Amino acid sequence: MVKLTEGRGKELFRKYGVAVPKGVVAGSADDAARAVASGAVPLPCVIKAQVLAGGRGKGGAVRFASTPEEARAAAAAILGSSFQGETVREVLLEEKVAIARELYLSFALDRTARLPILMTSARGGVEIESVDDSEIERQTIDPFPGLVAYERRRAARSLGLTGPLVGELDRLLTGLYRLFDDEDAELVEVNPLAVVGDRLLALDAKVIIEDDAAFRHPEFAAVHDDRTPLEEIAREKEIAFVQLEGNIGVIANGAGLTMATLDVLKEFGGAPGIFLDLGGTDDPKKVTEAFLLMAQAKPKAVFLNIFGGVTRCDTVARGLVTALGSVAPSERFPLVARIRGNNEAEGIAILRAAGVTSVPDLKASAQAVVAAARGGP
Amino acid sequence: MVKLTEGRGKELFRKYGVAVPKGVVAGSADDAARAVASGAVPLPCVIKAQVLAGGRGKGGAVRFASTPEEARAAAAAILGSSFQGETVREVLLEEKVAIARELYLSFALDRTARLPILMTSARGGVEIESVDDSEIERQTIDPFPGLVAYERRRAARSLGLTGPLVGELDRLLTGLYRLFDDEDAELVEVNPLAVVGDRLLALDAKVIIEDDAAFRHPEFAAVHDDRTPLEEIAREKEIAFVQLEGNIGVIANGAGLTMATLDVLKEFGGAPGIFLDLGGTDDPKKVTEAFLLMAQAKPKAVFLNIFGGVTRCDTVARGLVTALGSVAPSERFPLVARIRGNNEAEGIAILRAAGVTSVPDLKASAQAVVAAARGGP
Amino acid sequence: MTVLVDGETRVVVQGITGHQGTVHTRAMREFGTQVVAGVTPGKAGSAVEGVPVFDTVREAVAKTGANASCLFVPAPFAKDALIEAVDAGIRLSVLVTEHIPFHDMLVMYHYARARGTRIIGPNCPGIAAPGRSKVGIIPNVVFRPGRVGVISRSGTLTYEIVNGIKEHGLGQSTCIGLGGDPVVGTSFVDALPLFERDPETDLMVLVGEIGGTAEEDAAELIRTSFSKPVVAYIAGRSAPPGKRMGHAGAIISRGRGTAASKVAALERAGARVARFPYEVPEIVAELARTQARR
Amino acid sequence: MTVLVDGETRVVVQGITGHQGTVHTRAMREFGTQVVAGVTPGKAGSAVEGVPVFDTVREAVAKTGANASCLFVPAPFAKDALIEAVDAGIRLSVLVTEHIPFHDMLVMYHYARARGTRIIGPNCPGIAAPGRSKVGIIPNVVFRPGRVGVISRSGTLTYEIVNGIKEHGLGQSTCIGLGGDPVVGTSFVDALPLFERDPETDLMVLVGEIGGTAEEDAAELIRTSFSKPVVAYIAGRSAPPGKRMGHAGAIISRGRGTAASKVAALERAGARVARFPYEVPEIVAELARTQARR
After folding, report:
1. Cβ neighbours around A217 below 10 Å, total
2. Considering CB atoms only, which of D56, D107, D111 is closest to B150?
3. B280 touches chain C (CB under 8 A)
4. Cys bridge to A308: A341, C42, C66, D256, which one at CB 3.0-4.6 A?
5. For residue A111, what are the contacts with CB-CB under 8 A and spacing of at least 6?
6. What is the DSSP letter of A52?
7. Which residues 142-161 on chain D approach chain A with CB closer than 8 angstroms?
8. Is the CB of residue A150 less than 8 Å away from at least one CB of chain C?
9. How far is CA A211 from CA A8, A217, A256, in A?
10. Chain A contact for C41, CB < 8 A?
11. CB contacts, 8 Å: D87 with chain B
C-alpha cells in the first residue's frame, strides 16, 4: 500500500485535469518563504505538514500566513516536528480560497460487487465516518465502459450542485476516475472538495496506490511511507513484516495462520507485536533473512508456527538453524517452535539437533511462548 | 471517412510508439534536398508521393535517390504531378532499409462479430486481396479487455516471427490497437511491415478515421481528402453529396432510396452521376442549399425522388421552388419530381404552381428523367 | 408480444424535449403506443405531449413501469444514454440517433447484450406493429395491420415498400428498420428467428443494401432454418464499387458484400429477389394469393 | 460432479514449466487428478511429469479435452492468461498466483463471469475433493474422503483445520480455499449454494478473516437458505484495527468487517463459531456424532 502525501496526490490530480489550489511543496523554511515572495503561492496562504496521518488541523500541522515572513515562520515551526510519530519533511503552501461549501467524494473498491465505487456526500470537510448513511450516495462503476453521464449527474445531484458546477463536477469525476483506474489506486479521496465561486477545487487529496500494481508504476517505488525502518528493509527483501505494540515475535506462514496465532497468544495473556509471514517460501536463505530481521526487532520471545503444506518443514528448520548461528549470544531470545505438515519429522529432528524443541499442540506451545516472554522457564 | 496520407499516418504511428523508418515530409524540391543534406533522412532514400490512392509503386509515384541532388530531382518530378486524379502536394522522404521479409497487418471492424478484427499474414508487400485465405490469420479482439497476450502470440506465429521479433511485434500490436481504439479508426493497415535486422518497421501506413467520431478529433478536421470541390462544400454544409461519372442528378432522402433510384435509372438507360441525399431534413433552407449545390454540378436533368415519412413533402417542395427561382435561366435543367408520403397533396400542389409536375409512379418518372437527359421531351 | 413490441410495451423517450423527441412522441401516441415517460436531464417535472418528463431513466422506470426506450439523444451522448437505459432495466432500446461512432456502438452492443437488453439501430427508423405499438419514427400512414413481416437496413426505402404493401391491399405484422450502420444492435440474422416464431407473420420481406455481409448471413439462416416465404430487395445493384474501408474491408468480406453476391445467396436460399423496389409489393401480393389458395 | 470438480475434471496447468507448476503437477497427479496438459508459450512439444506441454490453452483443450485450468503464471501476466483460458472454453480456473493487482481482477472476474467460467482465487490454494480430484496446491496429506465441506479465505490455516478434521477421524467432501484478496472469483456466498446442493456434504466448515464483509454476507445466506450445520472460525479476532483503505474503506463496510461483527452475524445465523482454530475439528466431531445418532 503506497499512500501518497497530499502534495504528491495533488500532483496526480493536476496530471488528470483536476483543479487544486495554487500551491508549492517546500522542504525548508527558506523555500517556503521564496514560494510566497515569488508569487507562486498567493497570499494569504495555508501551510500544511506533508504527513500521512489524518487530523492535521486539530494537531497544529496546518497553519496560515498573510506575509512571506509568516509563511517562513509557519513552515519553520512545522518542518522537522513530529506528527503522530512521523517526522515532517515537507510542507505544502497553498493559496487560501473562499470556500462556499465543503463536499466529500471518493473512489474505492466495493469488494462484494467487485466493482469500483463512487461515494459522494454534500457533508464534506468532516470525517466521513461521522456522516449518516442516508447522506452518502454510493454508486458502483463498471470499468467497462467506465463512469457514464447519468452516474455523474446522480453524483452532482447528491452534492446539490447546479449550473456551471455540474460541468465542473463532470470534468473532475472523469479525471479522478481515470486516475483511480490508470494509476491502480485503492483509494482516491477528496475531502473537502470545495465550491469556490463557480469552480470546484480539491482542497485535500488522499491517494493510495495498490502495492501489487507496483510493477506497472515504478514512479511510486521511492515514495516515502509510514513504515518503520525494519518494515522498510523487509519490504525491500519482499518479506511480509509488521511491527505493532507488543514484545512477542511471531513467525508463521500465511496471513490466516499468523492472525490465528496472534489470537491464541493473546488468549493466554501474551503481547505479540512483531509479525513475520513467510508466505509460501521454500527457500532456507529467505527463512534465515527473515529470522535475522526478527532478531533485529528485539523480541522477548519468538513463536515459530509453521504448517508445512507447500512449504517443507525441514527446509524451514534448516534456514532457522543457520540463522540461529548468526545471532550474537547477547541478542538471543527464547524460541518456541511448532512445525507441522510436510516433512514434519525431519524438521523436528533438525530443530532438536540445534537445541530447539517443537511442541505439536498449538495451545501448549502458545502458553510456553507467553511464559518465556515473561521471563519464565 | 478521413483517410490519412502515409506521412500523417506515420506521425500517428510514432505517437503510439510504432517504429517507422527515419523520414521527413516535404512540400517542395528544395525542402526535400535539405532534408537529405541535413542528414534528417539518411541516404540512400526513397521518395514517395503523398496521395491516397494505392499502386504508387507501379505508377511512378515512388522513386529512389542516393544523393541530395537525386532526391531533389525525384521530388521535383513527383510534386505537382497528378496521380489517379489527385495532385501530389507532398512527398515523404525516408531512409531505404534492408528488408529481410515483408509482412501484412491490419486492424479493422468485423461487422458480423461487432468486434475489432486483427488480420496478419506472412505474405506482405503484395495486395492482400491476392493472398489466399489460408495464409491470413484473423482474430477478433474484445475491446474489454483489449488485445491480450495470447492473441499477440498467435499473430507472431502467423507471421513466422521468433526471438526478439516477438517482443517487437508485441509492442507494435499494443501501440496500433491503442491507435485504432483511441483515434476512432476504421482501418489501421501496415503493408508492408518489414523485418529489418531484429526490428520491425512499418514501411507504409494506411489509417482511416471514422467521420462520425469527428467530434472527438478536431485535429483531423483540416485533413486533405479525396473529395471534389463541390463535395468539400457539401461536407461543410453537412449535405450528403457524391459525384461520380454520369449526367443525371438525383435528389432523394435516405441512402437506400437513393441507391434504389440509381438502380431504376440505370435500368432505363440513364447515367446518374450526382447524388444528393437530403436525409431526414425538414428544413426548406437546407433543401434550397442542396438544390443550388446540385445546380452547380451542371446536371443534364434532375430527378427529385422523395418519400415523405419524417420529412414533409410540402416543406421539401417549398424549398425546391425557392431554389428554382435563384437558378439563372441559362443554367436551368429539366426537373422530374416524384414526391410521396407525408403531406403529399400539398407538396404536389406547390410544385405544380411552380410548373413542376410530380409523377407518382417510380418507373414512369425514371423513364421521363432519362428521356429528358437525352434532350428528349 | 409477437415480435419485440405489443400492447404491453411502455415507452420512455430519451431526449423527449428536443424537436424530434416531441414530434415523434406525438406520432407514437397517435399510432397507439403507450408512451409513458420522457427523460431529459434537468427538465424533470415538465411534460411533453402530456407525457411526464424525468431526470433519469431509473426514475422513469420506477414511476411509470417503462420497459422500452426510444433514443433521440445526440450522437456524442448516445452511448451514455443507452447504458443508462440498460442499467435501468429497459429491455428494448431503439436508437434513432444517427452518426454514432462505431467504436461507441461496439461498447453499447456488447454491454446491452450481456445484460439482456435488445438494441434496434442506431440510425434506424425503429419498429412498428400496426394496431399494437410503434417505437421509433416510421410514418404511421404507411401501415395497415396484416401478416407480412418486414425487416430492412434502409429508412425511406422501407416506407416506400411498406406503403406499397398497403396499396396492394395487404398489411404488416411487424416492421423493423434495422439501420444501415456498420454496427447494428439487431441484424437480419437476429431478427429472422423472431419472425419465424411469430404466429402473426406468414411472409417475410427483407430489404438489404450493398456493403457488409448481413444479407449473405441472412441467406444462410433462411436456407437452414426459416420456413416462411421471403421476398427480398437489395438496393445499390448498379452502384459503383465502393472505396470504403479500402483493402482490409475487401478481405474481410472476400468477394461477398456486393449486390450480386447478396442476390445470388438469397436466391440460393429460396428467396424471391425483386429487381426494383416497386416489384416487392407485387411479388408479396402474388405469394399472398398463393398462400390464401392453399 | 459434486462441487465443481470430480473424476471428469481434466486439468491444464498454465505455467507448467516453472518450479511451482512442476511441483504441483506432480502433487496433483499423486492426488489422482487428471492433469492432461500444460501450457507455457514457446515450450510446446516438451513434457513435464509426463504431461504434454502446449503453446496455447486452445491447443491444449483441442488435443486433450481439458476443462479446468490451474494458473501458476506470474502476476503481471495472469490477467491475459486467465482470459486465454476463458476464450479457450475452460469452465473452472484456479488462480494460485498471488499479488495480482485488484484492478486486473475486476476485469478478470467480470470477463469470466459473463462467459460462464468460474474463477477460484487468486492467491488461493485451490480446490480438492478427496478421492476425486484436486486443482491447486493444498497438500495431499491433510485430506481424507468424508462428508465435511470446507470453505476458507485462508491458506495454511485451512491446511491446519482440514488436517485437524482428519486427525479427529473424519474426512472432507470438498475443500475450497477461496483466497484472501480483496477481489476473489468465488466468495463464501458463491460457494455455499454449491455445498447446499451437494449430496456428499453433511456439514460445513467456514474459515474467515477480518476485513471485508464476505463473512457477514455468508451469514445472511446461511440464515436464509443454507440447511446444513455450519462451524465457523474467524482469524484476527485480536488484531488491532487495520489502517488499510483508510476512511473510505471504513464507510463502505460501516462497522462491519470486524471480527466481532462477523462472529455475531454467524452466530445469529445459527453457526457454531470456534474461538480458536483447534476448536474447529472438535466441534465438527461433536456435530458429526450428533448427526450420526439421528
Report:
1. 16
2. D56
3. yes
4. A341
5. D182, D183, D212, D213, D214, D252
6. S
7. 142, 152-160
8. yes
9. 17, 9, 20
10. yes
11. 150
**pTM attached to this predicted model:** 0.93
CATH topology classification for B101-219: D-amino Acid Aminotransferase; Chain A, domain 1 (3.30.470)
Chain A residues lying within 8 Å of C57, measured CB to CB:
150
CATH numbers and ranges of domains, chain C: 10-120 (3.40.50.720), 138-293 (3.40.50.261)
Q: How far is C283 from chain A (nearest CA, A)?
A: 46
Q: At residue C254, does pLDDT exceed 80?
A: no
Catalytic residue among A70, A90, A94, A104: A104
Cross-chain residue pair A257–D109, CB shorter than 8 Å = no
* Residue D101 to residue A110, Cβ atoms within 8 A: no
Tell me which chain D residue has its CA closest to the CA of residue B146: D80
Residue of chain D with shortest Cα separation from B162 = D42
Order across the sheet with A23-26: list the strands: A23-26, A91-95, A45-49, A62-65
pLDDT per residue as tens digits for the range C2-30:
799 999 999 999 999 999 999 999 999 99
Cis link prior to A377 (omega < 30° from 0)? no
For C153, the grid coordinates are: 437496413
Question: Which sequence positions of B are flagged as catalytic?
Answer: 104, 189
Closest in A142, A149, A154 to C80, CB measured: A149
Which member of B119, B206, B210 has the closest CB to residue C102? Answer: B210
Q: How far, in Å, are B194, C137, C157, C174, C203 from residue C152 at the CA level?
A: 44, 14, 9, 11, 14
For residue D76, what is the nearest residue in chain A, using CA coordinates?
A: A215
Shortest distance between the Cα of C29 and any Cα of chain B, in A, equals 15
Chain A residues whose beta carbon lies within 8 Å of the beta carbon of residue C107: 144-145
Which residues are registered as beta bridge partners of B2?
Answer: B209
Q: What CA–CA distance (Å, rounded) separates C288 from C284?
A: 6
Q: What is the number of other CB atoms lying within 10 angstroms of the CB of residue D78?
A: 26
Verify whether residue A104 is a known catalytic residue: yes
Domain borders along chain B are 22-95, 101-219, 229-373
Which class does domain B22-95 fall in?
alpha beta
Please provide the CATH number assigned to the domain covering B229-373.
Answer: 3.40.50.261
Euclidean distance between CA atoms C8 and C27, whole angstroms: 18
Specify the amino acid at residue B315: T
**Cβ separation A341–D163 shorter than 8 A:** yes
Lookup: cell for B280: 431526414
Record: contact C156-B256, CB cut-off 8 A: yes
* Residues in chain D within 8 Å Cβ distance of A279: 98
Omega of the bond leading into A192 within 30 degrees of 0 (cis): yes
| Tens of pLDDT, residue by residue, chain B (377 residues) | 788 999 999 999 999 999 999 999 999 999 999 999 999 999 999 999 999 887 888 888 999 999 999 999 999 999 999 888 888 999 999 999 999 999 999 999 999 999 999 999 999 999 888 999 999 999 999 999 999 999 999 999 999 999 999 999 999 999 999 999 999 999 999 999 999 999 999 999 999 999 899 899 988 876 656 667 787 788 777 778 888 888 999 999 888 899 999 999 999 999 998 888 887 776 888 888 888 889 888 999 999 999 987 788 898 899 888 888 888 888 888 999 999 888 889 999 999 999 888 888 899 999 999 999 998 65
Return residues 160-179 of D near A (CB < 8 Å): 160, 163
Q: Of A51, A44, A39, whose CA–CA distance to A74 is shortest?
A: A44
Question: Which pLDDT tens digit goes with each residue over D1-55?
Answer: 679 999 999 999 999 999 999 999 999 999 999 999 999 999 999 999 999 999 9
Residues B71 and B62: their CA atoms lie apart, in Å, by 11
d(CA B169, CA B199): 9
Q: For chain D, report the end-to-end CA distance as a whole number of angstroms.
A: 27
